[in-house]
Records
---
Amino acid sequence: MSAGVARAAWARIVAALLVVVLAWPALAVQPDEMLDDPALESRAREISQGLRCPVCQNESIDESNAPVAKDLRLLVRERLVAGDSNAEVVEYITDRYGEFVLLEPRTGGANLLLWAAGPLMLLLAAGLAVLYLRRRSRAPAPAEEGLSDEEEARLQELLHR
Amino acid sequence: MVTELGHFALVLAFFVALVQAIVPMIGAQKGWRGWMAVADPAANAQFLLTGFAFAALVHAFVTSDFSLRLVVENSHSLKPMLYKISGTWGNHEGSMLLWVLILTLFGAAVALFGGNLPPALKARVLAVQSMIGAAFFAFILFTSNPFLRLARPPFDGQDLNPLLQDPGLAFHPPFLYLGYVGLSVAFSFAVAALIEGRVDAAWARWVRPWTLAAWIFLTIGIAMGSWWAYYELGWGGFWFWDPVENASFMPWLFAAALLHSAIVVEKREALKSWTILLAILAFGFSLIGTFIVRSGVLTSVHAFANDPERGVFILIILGVFVGGALTLFAARAQAMEARGVFGMVSRESALVANNVLLAVAALVVFVGTIWPLVAEMAFDRKLSVGPPFFDKAFTPFMIALALILPVGAMLPWKRARLGRAMRPLVPALGLAIAVAGLAWAMQTGRSLLGPVGLFLGTWLVAGAAVDLWSRTGQRRDWRRLARLPRADWGRVTAHAGLGVAIIGVSGLTAWQQEDIRVVQEGVPWQVGGFELVLEDVRQVEGPNYISTTGQVGLSTVEGREIATLHPEKRVYPVAQMPTTEAAIDYRPLRDVYVVIGDAQDGGGWTMRVYIKPLTNWIWAGALIMALGGGLSLTDRRYRVAAGARKVPAGVAAE
């Protein structure tokens, strides 16, 4: 395919897609979604940053541009305007979308293990380290060993080169 | 034709790897010099063959050979040349080929620079290195062959993922792989030492430069990835605790621990078995990282190939190598008795504390990363572990590390008195407290994060300065610094770099400002001491995308002009994907980060503006850390070791 033909094909693609482009989903929070009350809006942002967009990979609904994230952002704001507390909003969403949407996992049940893993491993490692250090600080100083025959030979070789 | 030759070279390299994995190992066991000597030419041949195969694939991408399935799926004739080349590794098959290319590169480097190694150790190291190579050659040839042809080639390709069409990301994977795979050398040395049952100061001295090199590359690779995420993803985050990011971060933490424990082996003949274990774990986590990315068990934006068959194959490789090495370790670790004696308070114990904190921190990241998988399989709970968890669970370890680091660096070997080591650090502590107090007084919100971060960062940088100052001796003779070993300069530089990075992270996290609004062209608005005006918006056509480009004037509130910024919104029609190209005014103390959004029905555009304080310090800190590693790498004791090689090689010409 010659460059000219490629260019022509490209121009057609561009023309066809310009229409699509203008309707492309918008990025993250939009001004028209935002609440007029700054205190309420900042609570909404805080909540959104802790909720995962259900169809995205590791993005919060605050960052995501997926349509479902927009729906959730609006839902969060709706609940806030209706007078819910932050915890109630989060509960409202998790009741409908499951605990999958919580970016900060709950502490209950098996998750205790997750949250305790760090401190537990630290205790274990620190304990082992202290045991090791005590052993090293009490060990007798090693007797100075002479060189092995092989090492002696190598030393002579180096010295007399 | 070139493609077929490349394919053939890859198959040949696989067989050479098999030979190199077996013959030198038997030779070392039996003491047969001739069999051991097979390793060197075999390592070079492997590298040349794999290099040829890789060059053949690059050639196919550069010439847009659309008879190759891989090129069709990941390239396009209109793509800029840079991304045609980087497209070679911007996909699963090509990136695995790059992976083994780097593996064989390190094998050849060991053959080249390892002249002063005892022949048996060298033969074993190269044999182990080649076993890893053989496993991955098999992986590529049987599950991920990049050289497959199509029966009916299309006229043009499907283009590379537009997010990857970026100079930062073009060179991010090679650096990351140099780091990941560089750790294989430490692994091979560890396994060879276990087979020999002997670890001494010389062993540690051989392992350390390889680990340092790997760590430097990992540091640069991670920093590049983080910078890319910052300017490309459109809201200026620099770290997301994404599984793929964690996959590169865990080996980095283990490599950092290994660097420090190898010093204890080298200087004091202690911590031997722990160092061996760390070397196994560091590469083990590189393999786990490869598994996570390639298998897609934990999906993420970066994982461009998700295939269960490939995942299982890598899991088997992981099981065989890490399992085998750990079994060997369990059997042989007892033989590595420690010799050095030291007190509870000493440089040695500070390095042990460093290792405890780094290793546990890495394991916390690991547990957090795989927890969604564990919870789903074992407890039937579908859940997410996101940034809030990692921020809370990981940060305390880094705070503890930063607190003890300057003290530990000042402690003498063997036996130390804490008070005496602390005394020179008092000015550093005072300075750190003053900076934190100033930050506390000047900030508007009452958050602890910023002041604490600034305290730790200043403490580290000032502590590194005191460390250097203390090397001038009793008479404060600055000329002594010129004669200071490079390793000391490296240590001081890297520690200061960590401080700089901590200042950047905490400054950005604590004091970022954000503004989202609808803006009319020509109507100025103010954000945190800056005035912006959207002067113009136009449609621009790029080589393989179309762009909506805004022109934004940035000035101070007083009206002094600072810069003109061009934020873009691009659409790549072939891949059907939009990307945002933020316009950033980079300055040492703050970035102004401008993103253009959509046209509004009522006229005007959505604009997002962020003021991001101290952001560049994050990457500057990473680069300073890497520079410190580089200084340490050029230390005389490694050069002496390298020089010792040249004499016998030149005379005997084996």
---
Amino acid sequence: MDFRVLLASLIDGLMLGFVYGLAAMGLTLIWGVMRVINLAHGPIIALGMFGVYLLFIHGGVNPYLGLLIVAFLGLLFGILIYALAVHRVLTAPHLSTLLATFSVNMMIIGVGTALFTTTPRNIDISLGRLVFGPVVLLGTRLVAVLAAVFITAALYLFLYRTTLGKMVRAVASNRAAAELMGIPSSRVLALSFGLGTMLAAAAGGLIATFFPFTILSGGTYELKSFVICVLGGLGNPTGALVGGLILGALEGLIPTFMPVSYVPVIEFLLFVLLLLLRPQGLFGER
Amino acid sequence: MWRSGSWWLTLALLLGAGLSPVITGSATLREDMFLILMLITLASSLNILLGYTGYVNFGHIVFFGLGGYIGFYLMHRHGWSLWPATVAAGLATAALAFALGMIILRLRGAYFALATIGINEAVRAFVANFEPFGGATGMSLNFAVYQAYGGAARALWLAYGALLALALITVGISFAVKHSKFGLGLMAIREDEDAALVLGVRGPQVKTLAYALSALFPGMVGVLFFFKNGNIEPGDAFRLHLSIETLVMVMLGGQGTVWGPILGAALYERLRGYLLTSPLFKNLHLAFAGALLLMIILFVPAGFIGWLRARFPVVRRVVV
């Protein structure tokens, strides 16, 4: 095995891993705060892709500026989803929240397919490339990595340094006690759900700058997010980023050893095994 | 069970509806009923795990697809007849579920639900790479195969008859489970698993048995469906969406009841057929189904039958 090829694939995979991790962070945040698995995660990623795309094509907005707008819209959309579909069933059995978020998934996919069809789209931008020997770093991916790191840092600061972030963590650890301390838990939950969808939409926007996509593309990233969340520990945002890197590295390296179609087989076997052997994730729950 | 009027009523209704294409000899009616009976079988078998035991299974369709593949493989590569292939595929999926269940049923709640999604995807990706099953392109039956059953037209009627019998058996098992000690154990687990364990329900064994039972029927239905279809490929066989549509059917009719999945499957199929053909909703049928699902979950979580039973206590003796 040529070491140079291996290194190039590894770095390529790791760079994708940052974005995967960002998407998974949205899922894991929602789980961590309210024990809801957001099955509308994939379509929201796809909406993020389309948001950046439409702003770019029709409004001429730079994709990275568009990303900010899309992230904000993602926050509002998440709050709306929470209010309409999640709030009422939060205390019901798991089946209800799973199906409620899945119904949102169906609605987005249904309307999205009718509006955008399933023709692949892509955002045609290039930010040049950096070449270090065998390793080629595409500009768009480098920016995506920086954006992912920046958003993660911002989320961390928000959760640990601001009052609102502390409220989110208080509600996550004990909703009843938080309510007794005067925290408006319903509003905090709505905000947390919005933050989760915001991360998903932002990740989608970043992915759109380097891969072609359709309204159905989110499904793949949703499944990847599940794997990553379990790798990093459900409910642990920093774990999600590390999990994303592990998954990205696997995706980079596996194709150098066996046919690329085996990647999902290995990913999902790993996923089921992890659920069984270490359901708290590699780094535990936080 | 044999002395229960409710069971005879269920049987008579299902048999009447199922025999209507045979009596009229209409092929279009048969195709409609084939789909409905298939969905009834899938929904009723899912209900054993979802409704009675309270475990959310997103991977129910794995057994449908895998059963279809095993049966298809036996017919296609080894020249088996449809009947032994169907039984063998059903037993194989049940055995697989039994083995799998011993492992993954240790997980509870959302973790179990996630694991079932993972299994669905892993199996689909594996089958797409598995050469004996034709890899990503799948397998196709030679048209001459149908000669053994007296021509293609007759083979379709035979497959329909087999499906009708299978649907009746599934509903019968569903009824029997609900009214047995085994079913009571499952429902105790649904209400409070720890309490059930303390009271002497043999949790792991009972759950695993329920999982295997719920996997037996989709495996057999898969063979009949793909035999009728003539070809099988990974995308068709393991559609995560069909899994979830089956969940919607169970929810729509009423989880944990015998009639719920039957009614839910028939209603959902009719509704989807209507939406797909109406010019207004044609492109939006998925969105519409999603909105319907949300309404059910938010406002009628017990489903139609559950609501009926709660609202009119009189019907409880008939509607189970």
---
Amino acid sequence: MALLEVERLQAGYGDVLVLKDVSLDVRAGEFVALLGPNGAGKTTLLRALTGLIPARAGAIRLDGERIERLKPYRIAARGVAAIPERRRLFDELTVRENLALGAYLDPARRRAAETLESLERLFPLLRDRADTAAGLLSGGEQQMVAVARGLMARPRLLLLDDPFLGLAGAVIRELGRALRELTDAEGLAILAAGQHVRRLLRLAHRGYLLEEGRTVLTGSGAELLEHPHLRRSLLELAPQRTG
Amino acid sequence: MSRLGVGGLLLAVAFPVLTGFHPYYLYLLGTGYLLASLASAWGLLAYAGQISFGHAAFFGLGAYTTALLALKLGVTPWLGILLAGGAGALGALPIGAAAHRLRGAYLALASLAYAEVLRVLALNWTGLTGGGAGLIGLPALRVGVELELARERAGGYYLSLAVLLVALAVFAGLRRTRVGLAWAAIREREERAQILGVSPTSYKLLAFACSGALTGLVGALYAHSVRFIEPDLVFGRYFSILPLIMATFGGLHTLLGPPAGALVLYLVSEFVFHPLLPRLHQLPYALALIGVVFALPRGLAGLIGRR
């Protein structure tokens, strides 16, 4: 059984229905890419999965249990961590405090020191800038802290919105490798949305293409990279080898 | 603790001796400490991101609780003050519950209305509260010697100082715990706090209860110090707006900003403006608010770069 199952989900803001028909699933230990042009509903879908906006119709299941009506903090308590896009940190709080908030709930809290130690190896800035207010970091540094904060929760499912935005190429490669290692070695499930189409598809086991609020295409990373529709939709103007 | 803090504390402890137990100065500074505690209580709530325009509600509940217990049931003021803290905490819960749905200005207006409702209730429930005539003849607190207005005031001075120090110590401790972390996260961005697993409703309630308890306690101390209360005073706008201005002037979201702002403004008002412009001695409060808005967005604390 998949860890996360989304079935014919509809959601939106006010009178605007952004997600019209979304179905997807993510298994434990799987890295799944969520692709789509701007405005397709990627961020809206991640917000619905964290409980920040209500589902109008359809179902979201975690481990087989419906969660689409739960409050965000109840969903977090079930092992879902999210790293939202942009302005993701608490700017007035220090890096250390931001990370502590990532491990706010038990059982992550009891293992916070241990988790932090392994994350500091991946991102040395977590130690070097521990007492700096997060708002004073550069965009790329903030992104690293945001990813680290998400991992501090030791989640079962990690939702990432544009995780590579603002990061240098070398950091992207290293972060990608680290995330993939978490899925393969520790069984973490990742659903990552973003603009770095090739990078995400090369990392991912599978991917979904979202267009105008509908999941229109799915397949393995390699299949999608070669798929004519996805290439037309997302890669037409992009150079052949980037990301 | 910093050198500045230790120096200030020693000065505060030695102050009665240095001034030869001058009753007026002791009264002034003792009142200043009570206002500083009030500003700290308001600042604790602001630390959790909740802005109140109605702290007089909790202040008045505290004052009336201990006054009625003492006058109707003969309860000793010491117990009355503790129960007044409880009354302040309980009285803050309805507004804390409202904070579940109301944000920012709407919550502030609701708290203002709440204090007004209590004021009108106290004015009209004549059988219990004595109505607009107020309650007179409250017993004085005994700290070794009797703390009456015109007599030896060192006991009251030290009691006010102790309350302020305890309030600050509790707030400083809370800021380092998960509770303080959750408050800061809710203040900075509630939505993001929620997806990390922080339940805003319960932490807001806790912040209101803590702030209300301290405010009720201060209200009760004030009542036993002045020994006379009336609805328009203890439930009036003065005790709602004053902590807001003092804490904002001192520096929002800081530990020492609100009490420092309270002491500076109160003493400037009493020592400088009162002799010069007796009818306008509350002018510094208005000037301070204007100054903060236009020139000092982070208050006094922003000037010296403290958190």
---
Amino acid sequence: MSLTLIYTILVLSVIGVISAVILYLVAQKFKIVEDPRVENVEKVLPGVNCGGCGFPGCHAFAEACVKAETLEGLYCSPGGNACMAEVAKILGKTVAEKDPMIAVVRCSGSFGVRPRTSVYDGVGTCAIAASTYSGDTACSYGCLGLADCVRVCAFDAIHMDEATGLPVVVEEKCTACGKCVTACPKFIIELRKKGPKGRRVFVSCINKDKGAVAIKACKVACIGCGKCVKECPFDAITMENNLAYIDFNKCRLCRKCVPVCPTKAIHETNFPPRKPAEESAGTAA
Amino acid sequence: MFGKKVKTFPQGGIHPEDKKFSDHKQIVDLPLPATVYIPCSQHIGAPAVPVVQPGDKVLVGQLIAQRQGFISANVHSSVSGTVKKMVELPDPEGWKKPSFEIEVSGDEWLDGIDRSPELNMDITATPDEIRAKVTAAGIVGLGGATFPADIKLSIPPGKSAEFLIINGVECEPYLTSDHRLMLEKAEEIIVGIRIALKALGLKKALVGVEANTPDAIEQLKKFSNPYPEIEIVALKVWYPQGGERQLVKALTNREIPPPPRGLPIDVGCVVFNVATCFSIYEAVQKNKPLIDRVVTVTGDSVKDPSNFRVRIGTPIRALIDAAGGLPEDTAKVIRGSVMMGKAIPDISIPITKGAGGIVIIPENEAKRKQKQVCIRCAKCVSVCPLGMEPYLLMTLVEQGRLDEAELEKITNCCECGCCSFTCPSNRPLLDYIRYGKASVLQRMKARQQK
């Protein structure tokens, strides 16, 4: 009886050893050699797999970085310049510094200024609402308020303001991955330069209708009057299809355009309050 | 209904409760409004190019916008008066489109339009003349798809046609405009069918009419008696019997290949609506361009559901006022019909060529019910006239799996809405499928361009 036990154990052990040897040999034969730098690069990446770089995750981005000749065109926006510098150090390549960006919502049509003309009762996503009709206000460009941008954000950096019905970007959390930009069917969200101390000037409207039509739909719409274009000393503002656009690479943050806008469609963020004298001078001009 | 079997399509379909409140109401002319708004684009294809300027005087039937490109249609003034200006007017989906604002003064018609009510039975025009007249008159498919009719009247090279299919099926609940037209203008419709037969050089026309309009069938049969090439076929009262695909299948037992490439001509059929046939008659025999159409204004709480002959460009508000005004409990105004149509965001928009009905839905019926989880009952599968799996398509679109949705042939969907109508969990199946279909079509287009 005890002999049977011993035989069994022996036979099983021998099979085990042989299998182990075969598995070892096979593993050696078909070994996948991965560049160890990929792992190192991946370690310094944020690891959120947001896809903002255009690759399906941080690992794929690390692979692309290692494979690429130069790091041109490869940028991890959640990691920022610091992260990319480390990546460059590991790979012995150089990387150009980029200005930090941030998502900017270019619609200010809150409930108070943009009267609702209809009630949408369908599926609660912007994508479906936008494919169904022009929206629940007379402005066919404005925010639908159904929060597709909020749902795609991996960083909890954008949320809906209940009082206005518009999305709000949390400055500290936004990494400019661009997910909300592609999710918005109305193309309202834009990645703009974050600016020194978060100071930015932008036109918070994308309505391309003629002035009279636009202002009827929304009190804070850009009416294409062109005052800001004339005011800008740096030629940063262009007027196309009744809509002003401020080029953030040319804008020097002088803020002269802000007070001249008759509908207050141009917004400034994080600036210190104006001195009363400066403000009156600005309005007079 | 008749005790004998009537033809139908083989798969799926539903029967929404009939609410034909206006089927006994004669078509009446709506008084001319003070101002009309005529959009340049009332058809599928390229918008027409304006040929009159603000300040110009126009007459009824005068060309105001010229067709451009292969798929397009002329637009004519439906009133006489002065072109005030070009305005950006929302279309039924709210997108702003260039339109003429014309102030009405009097009712002067362009010379050459025969306004007498006499029937003109002799078809003297040659096929080429017929096509030219239909093109000039700006006729589009009046069933709702608004595809330019002249293109359908010429058979593309390499294809051959056998049957002319006439759609007299008004399978939508509420609508009665085609029914009334068949009753009152049956003779004209028969002449229109003969004109289309002549233009196409065909020997057989099949007219499909739903069995719940026996008076229309009788009327059409009476006047088509002398013409053995025209056959009137009663069809089962079943939605979507009036869908092109279903109608061709029911009448000829042929299956149109799946979209986006499949057209009725691929199986030797050309399909026209009865209202389009009537317009073809008017264009060819009376020289009258498409400037008016029959519109049903109806709804559960509408005081006076009616069928109006309306000039194109009349604001929808005027029609509703003529039908007894907007009921107090109105929640939705649907342009077209309840199954296929869409709610409009503004009732000041005008009637265009494709609008066959205005349905006013009261509050208690307009609200969507709470969406619940799918219970896998497969009712949506059993009612889908195309044999697809709506529950699956919806899930794929919801999860963004558009590749798989494409493999499941989401683009075949005809958007009839049977699935959403029948779902016991009130799931918005069609909303998702319609969106998914549009996205997949966009992808396919992008791929082709690459």
